[in-house]
Amino acid sequence: MNLKNITFAVFATLIGTVAMARDSQAVGEDVSKYLPKSGSRAEVLADLQVYRRSGLAEFDRGESQDLSGSAYIQARARYMALRASPDFKALVSKIARERGEALATAGTGSGAVLQ
Questions:
Q1: How does pLDDT run across 26-73, given as a tens digit for each residue?
Q2: Which among 31, 45, 67, 106 has the fewest CB atoms less than 10 Å away?
């Protein structure tokens, strides 16, 4: 590829991204949910455990995903409930302690720890 083709590809990608963002905003969709969230390593590891435990990981294994089926909806509800529970903060704290991370960034909490 020459510089002209690379420049065109980058420009086309940029325009497509902006167009998709504008379409999402036009229908009232919150685009920020697709952006990466910052968090400590302990938060990421705890989120992965909760994601697997909820059953959502099973939906990432196939080529086609039925995201409107009742099994997916139930798994997503379990994930959201686990993620919002005080036990999630306790799990983050536990992982942070095990990894030697600062607890201030991992959040605090009490109660039983998710396993």
A1: 556 676 666 666 678 899 999 999 999 999 888 877 666 777 788 889
A2: 67
- In 3D space, the residue among 114, 102, 113, 108 whose CA is nearest the CA of residue 40 turns out to be 102
- Domain range for 21 is 1-35
Residues 27 and 78 in one domain: no
69-92 tens-digit pLDDT: 888 899 999 999 999 999 999 999
Are 28 and 42 members of one domain?
no
Helices and strands (H, E) in the chain, number of each type = 5, 0
Closest CA to 112 of 78, 96, 89: 89
pTM score of the predicted model:
0.56
Task: Say whether both 96 and 112 belong to one domain.
Answer: yes
